[in-house]
Design brief:
92 residues; alpha+beta; HU Protein, Chain A; 3-stranded antiparallel β-sheet; two-stranded antiparallel sheet; 3 helices; 29% strand; elongated
């Protein structure tokens, strides 16, 4: 499922115009993104939670040349699936 599929499902189920459904979807994802940028945790009960993980710098290797390279620290979004979603997916 992609963004436009989600917009169409929301439009049909909630009897919204396509423009309004797109605005709801965009607002939803914008709010999650904004919270993660601020370092906040986002939890959607029975679905899962989004957090930001901090990774320390490390020395890696270029796989082609074998040369050592320094990889700087970084922050990446992380999703942890909720128990109910995990059980639903596993039972299918």
């Amino acid at each position: 499922m992609n963004r436009s599929d989600l917009v169409n499902k929301l439009k049909d189920k909630a009897a919204l115009s396509k423009k309004d459904a797109a605005e709801v979807v965009d607002t939803f994802f914008d709010e999650i993104t904004g919270a993660l940028v601020k370092g906040e945790r986002v939890e959607i009960r029975s679905f899962g939670s989004f957090t930001v993980k901090n990774y320390k710098p490390y020395v890696g290797r270029n796989p082609k040349t074998g040369k050592q390279i320094n990889v700087s620290s970084k922050k990446l979004p992380f999703f942890k699936v909720g128990k109910e979603l995990k059980e639903k997916v596993d039972s299918q």
